[in-house]
Amino acid sequence: MNLSVTDSAIKRFKENLSSKPDAIGLRISIKSTGCNGYSYLLDYAGEITDVDNVISVADISIIVDPESMTLIKGTEIDFIDEGLNQVFKFKNPNATGECGCGESFSV
To answer: Distance between the two ends of the chain, CA-based, in angstroms?
Structure first.
């Protein structure tokens, strides 16, 4: 599989999608930004293009464009809920570095 998703992240994805009935899945993409080069973006998907990668996990469609897929292939997505801190964590085997706050990464 190109991506793996923990049970905690699946649960959170389902909760998020339940409030967006028009969404057909979740889109994960990468943008150039941050102090280390790249940042993860999670958004609701309203459409799937011909070039998108569609990964089905626990009845959830995760949509990733080809350019982003090359940067996150093999990544594990987790959801951490520690008190007031709630965040999706990406364990990316392609990342060669991360900024101190974990918001951006380099390859």
So the answer is: 20
